Amino acid sequence: MRVLERLWPDISWRSAIIVLLIASLLVPVIVSSGFFFPYVVPRNLFFRVVIELGTAVLIWSLCFESRELDLRYEPIFWALVVFVGATFVSAFVSPARTHSFFGDFERMGGVWAWLHLVLFFLLLRTLREEDWRQVLNGALAVSMFVSVKAIAEHSHLARSSLLADSVAAAGPSTVGNSGLLAAYLLFAVAIAGYLASTSVKHRLLYLAAGGVNLLALIYAENRSTVIGLVLGSIIGGVIFATLSIRSRRRWIAPSAALALACLVASISAGIRAFPSSTLARRAPMVLQRLALTNPAGSDESRTMQWRAAIEGFEDRPLLGFGLENHALVWSAHFDPGIYHIDTDVYDRTHNEFLELLATTGLIGTIAFFGIWVAIGVTLYRAYREDMLSASALAVLTGLQVAYATFLIFWFVDLNSTMLWILCAALIASRANPRGVIRSGVEQRGPRRAFPLGVAFASAVLLVAALYTEAYVPLRANQALARVDSPRGSVRETLAEFSILSNSSAHQTEHTPIVMSEFLGSLRPRFREMRRDPTENRMIARAFAQTISAFDREIHRDSLNDRLYAHDASLLMEAATFFESRSYLDQAVELLHKAIDLSPRRIQQRLLLASLYNEENDYERARVVLGDAVKIDPQLGEPRYRLAEAYLKISQSDSALVMLESSLRLGYVGSPETYLAMGKRLEFSARTAEAATLYSNYLEAKYTRAVWSGPGTIDKSVPTSDIAVAAHLPLLYVRSQESELAIKTAAALAAFDSSRTSIVERFVSDVGSRRRLRWVARNSLLPCESIRASRSGDSIALGACGVFRRKL
Hints:
Elements: H1 2-7, H2 13-24, H3 41-64, E1 67-69, H4 75-92, H5 97-102, H6 111-124, H7 129-164, H8 178-198, H9 203-219, H10 223-243, H11 252-273, H12 278-282, H13 285-291, H14 300-315, H15 326-332, H16 352-384, H17 390-409, H18 414-431, E2 437-439, H19 449-484, H20 490-502, H21 511-521, H22 526-531, H23 533-556, H24 561-578, H25 581-597, H26 603-614, H27 618-631, H28 636-648, H29 652-664, H30 671-683, H31 687-702, H32 705-708, H33 719-734, H34 738-751, H35 756-767, H36 772-775, H37 783-788, H38 794-802
Antiparallel strand pairs: 1-2
Helix pairs in contact: 2-3, 3-6, 3-19, 4-6, 4-16, 6-18, 7-8, 7-9, 8-9, 8-17, 8-18, 10-11, 10-17, 11-13, 14-15, 14-16, 16-17, 16-18, 19-20, 20-23, 21-23, 21-24, 23-24, 24-25, 24-26, 25-26, 26-27, 27-28, 28-29, 29-30, 29-31, 30-31, 31-33, 33-34, 33-38, 34-35
């Protein structure tokens, strides 16, 4: 308390709010183990608790002191309220209402998150003029800690990459994601610039802090932030030059910004033109990434999401699918081309404006743009009333341009968005420095019941919010983390299922999926656990709880095809454990529903085909896999699965075509499939075709290194592949392809350097036309001597057994 009294001699409600606001700025450094999504959940829960406490303090101060709230001159606040109102209406009519209101543990977003950001703005507007510097200095101090950690991470990664002769990856610091880190540091640079423009005494110190944050931002290697920084600098420089008509140096800022833009553009162009040059190797990695951006190649995953968002907007143009529901848009307008580039799971558009267009419709998007309009109007008003200098106006305007540019390629996140709200409140404080708290008429006589009722109601709401939206999700999240990464026994992990199944937390999208995956991991022990009555009951209860969790989640989010697919996978495991076909029938129904919701997604078709295969219904599996191949003929896995189905129904020629095409497309499946196909070809005296299949298989799996070097394969090689490598040259010998026999023999030496002498002897014999001693053999390995000596070489013994029967 003495420390607080020294900092704020008049300890009051305002002091409590300032302490809570400064505490909220610690969000980017709050990381705790034991959480599911440890970089997201603890900091969001912390921020919400702090804001709820601050709001309660503000309400109590208005109830028990002669003060009142005056929001008449707060366009930014009302714009935020209108936006939250629009998202509320959108969420209310959303097909996934709960998810839209509360989000999930991966993002912790939704209407509830935006409501806290609005309350954060309101609390910031209670600050007096002298309070702002403390808050801004606190934000800058936290950013310095984050930046120093990011720079240290980069230095460590750079040293490691030099030793490993690789490229240094971007360090995420305490934020957990380098792209979101860059957005946070963008605001940190702007805050340092603003403080430098308003404080002559500490200007150099603030500029130095801004330089550290800028260096960390560059090391974050985020292209969109660099583009935003350049554009924001140009706009800010032009504004400063235009308004500073009396300064002879007014053109320095825009000239420096323009020079920076030209430097970035020229270096990027040089790298793009000469990607292997010294310039390309020594330029900052972020410029290398910027130069090699390819919207039609590796970066096409972003544009795919943009197209899906536009198509989703066309489906529900007025109110959209609800906040946090881009996954539904992506399911409905899935592009299978994503399989060639990236993961097929996306819950963000990576363009905040298009995402809002699809998830909140025209109403929400217009309301969001209204916030930016309100910020611009407030900036103009503050400058017109001489509350902002030209330099401060340039910094704050440039920041808005930079952040808007970032949002074209990314999305809102608590770490950076809370600083956007802070800067918006700072801008509002310049236009209306008196704040939103006014001294009311002193009350005389007995206190009215209305303020007391409001105070009591706010206390009840605070307790309810802290319990239902802080403690309950906290407990559920930690239980989910213990299931996702189990450290105890199976019994202890399954005990967490009861917590999850009885929890009233709203962030439940991952809950049944994680529970299902844990049960799937127990499949090898199902037979053993069935024999134990205690474990049998325990697993049966866990299945029931997980199935119930899926039912609840599907009811909340009925258009999410991935939920149906994961539920079907769980039911397939249940069918195995309980030995009941009824579960398989339910799984088939769910998978058909998933296919109807997202007809161009491949996973559920592959899962349905595997179910049919387990039921020996190979004809249906073939039909399902044929549809999967038609969806995207350039995908290798569906072709491989179709080849397996063809083998099951003895259509070898069709299976061979599918296997060869899947290998050409870069997909390599289980060795047993290629062995089965190859043996059929050899039994049919199609030796050359069998040799070609084996050769393509080894080359697709291990690249051309199996034939031409580097001499050894530096990874584990299964016994079946060693068997193929020892068998393949002999097939070419029988086909009188001596050159290919010699070439392919190199694979055995690459897999097992101890066989080099055998390979050399084989090459010598074939090169000298002494092939007869090898024609009748099935392997280059000395299988007879290995078996006779009962050698401890289990790998060689196993490889000999693969082709032991005479073909």
